[in-house]
């Protein structure tokens, strides 16, 4: 795989595409182009390792194998069979097929799955001149998206999504406190980047929950690649040399900064503060962030200037709407006199500004899972 130039597709949360494109440009990737819900770029196989290790805001890195119109099963079959799968999949590759279809004539996902699987098998048995494809080798996950009668076929290189940095346990077990409504790591990283935080100023998250924003801010300040310590699916591929991963990690390590940062998170719930401290320790940033029990209604930043990046309860999942409104009013009053502070606050509450008491200078639409939110900016 090493000499070929591939096209990669990075699916992104809606609203984050431009930020992921900026990150890829800073990595010197070629032909970076942001589209709705994804960013494309071109490069050799080594770039798939670099993108996986370094990207903070994308959801995963896939190789875009092919795309085209498909509004009948025959068209889908022919489209898939024409793709040179042998460029990516070795003779014994196992290739589970998953995907989704939206606003298209082909809407049955299990049927599309079967057709795609059949077409890839046909192509590979013909090219490799075998009767049956054994599928007893490394896994190459094929993903399809059919949108408006257009099918895109890609191969996942990431595995567990890029938001899984490894510092937040997937499920908190018995005896360990749970945090209501934690933010995805990629969304927190996006908020930190919208605020252009690089560690030069003080950062405060007065509704820190499990500490995701403060931890992502610390990673950004340290210029630490979020994927440095985790494994990716493509590491098991036999046709991709291990050296590309080692090189990507070494390149990232060499770009890390070291400094003193003023990053603080507070939460009214002591159990959240405990979880945030644990997460920071796992992320290797305990030295760079502080968490403590504090009530945001009497927020005092203890620094002359800086940036507040925060995600208060919305009144949907964590508390009732009227309670959220009262909290916004009280937090608005507590931050009213902070003239030299920029505030970036994520909420899905449609009446947020009215309750907070100030109209944002700018707003940016972001999705927290399925919840449509605004990032309210006071800067
Ligand atoms: C939406 S969650 C924040 C999730 C966080 N961004 C994360 O990634 O885990 C809101 C948090 O606000 C906290 N909270 C509610 N009222 C508060 C108050 N008056 N002062 C400080 N924290 C409060 C809750 O305990 C909860 O952890």
DSSP helical segment count: 10
Instruction: List each distinct ligand once.
Output: S-adenosylmethionine
- Report Rg: 23 Å
Class of the largest domain, according to the CATH hierarchy? Alpha Beta
The strand line-up of the biggest sheet is 2-3-1-4-7-6-5
Helix and strand content put the structural class at alpha/beta
Protein model, in words:
This protein has 379 residues and is an alpha/beta fold. It has 2 domains: 6-156, VC0802-like (2-Layer Sandwich), CATH 3.30.2130.30; 185-224 and 232-378, 3-Layer(aba) Sandwich (Rossmann fold). It is built from 10 helices and 14 strands. The protein has helices at 17-26, 46-54, 73-81, 109-127, 185-194, 212-221, 243-254, 270-283, 321-335, 352-356, and strands spanning 6-11, 30-35, 38-43, 62-69, 97-102, 142-147, 150-156, 202-205, 263-267, 289-293, 306-310, 341-347, 362-368, 371-378. Strands 2-3-1-4-7-6-5 form a 7-stranded mixed sheet. The longest helix is centred in the N-terminal third of the chain and has 19 residues, at 109-127. The chain is elongated, with a radius of gyration of 23 Å. The model is unreliable at 172-177 (pLDDT under 50). The protein binds S-adenosylmethionine. S-adenosylmethionine binds at residues 179-183, 206-207, 209-210, 212-213, 267-269, 272, 295-297, 311-313, 318, 327.
């Amino acid at each position: 795989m090493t000499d070929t130039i591939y096209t990669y597709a990075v699916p992104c949360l809606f609203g984050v595409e431009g930020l992921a494109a900026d990150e890829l440009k800073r990595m010197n990737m070629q032909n970076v182009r942001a589209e709705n819900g994804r960013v494309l770029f071109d490069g050799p196989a080594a770039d798939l390792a670099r993108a996986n290790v370094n990207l903070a805001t994308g959801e995963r890195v896939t190789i875009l194998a092919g795309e085209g119109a498909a509004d009948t099963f025959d068209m889908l079959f022919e489209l898939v069979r024409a793709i040179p799968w042998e460029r990516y999949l070795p003779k014994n590759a196992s290739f589970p097929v998953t995907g989704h279809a939206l606003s298209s004539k082909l809407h049955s996902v299990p049927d599309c799955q079967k057709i795609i699987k059949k077409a890839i098998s046909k192509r590979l048995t013909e090219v490799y001149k075998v009767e049956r494809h054994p599928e007893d080798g490394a896994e190459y996950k094929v993903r399809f998206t059919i949108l408006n009668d257009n099918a895109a076929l890609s191969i996942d290189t990431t595995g567990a999504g890029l938001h899984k940095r490894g510092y937040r346990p997937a499920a908190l077990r018995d005896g360990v406190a749970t945090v209501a409504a934690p933010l995805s790591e990629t969304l927190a990283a996006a908020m930190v980047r919208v605020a252009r935080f690089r560690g030069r100023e003080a950062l405060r998250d007065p509704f820190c929950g499990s500490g995701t924003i403060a931890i992502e801010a610390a990673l950004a300040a340290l210029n630490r690649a979020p994927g440095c310590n985790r494994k990716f699916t493509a590491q098991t591929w036999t046709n991709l040399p291990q050296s590309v991963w080692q090189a990507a990690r070494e390149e990232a390590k060499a770009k890390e900064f070291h400094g003193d940062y003023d990053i603080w998170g507070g939460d009214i719930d002591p159990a959240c503060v405990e979880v945030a401290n644990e997460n920071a320790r796992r992320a290797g940033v305990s030295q760079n962030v502080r968490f403590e029990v504090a009530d945001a209604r009497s927020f005092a930043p203890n620094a002359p200037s800086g940036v507040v990046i925060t995600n208060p309860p919305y009144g949907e999942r964590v508390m009732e709407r009227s309670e959220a409104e009262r909290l916004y009013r009280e937090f608005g009053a507590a931050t009213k006199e902070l003239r030299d502070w920029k505030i970036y606050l994520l909420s899905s509450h449609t009446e947020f500004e009215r309750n907070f008491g100030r109209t944002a200078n700018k707003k940016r639409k972001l999705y927290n899972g399925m919840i449509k939110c605004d990032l309210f900016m006071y800067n």
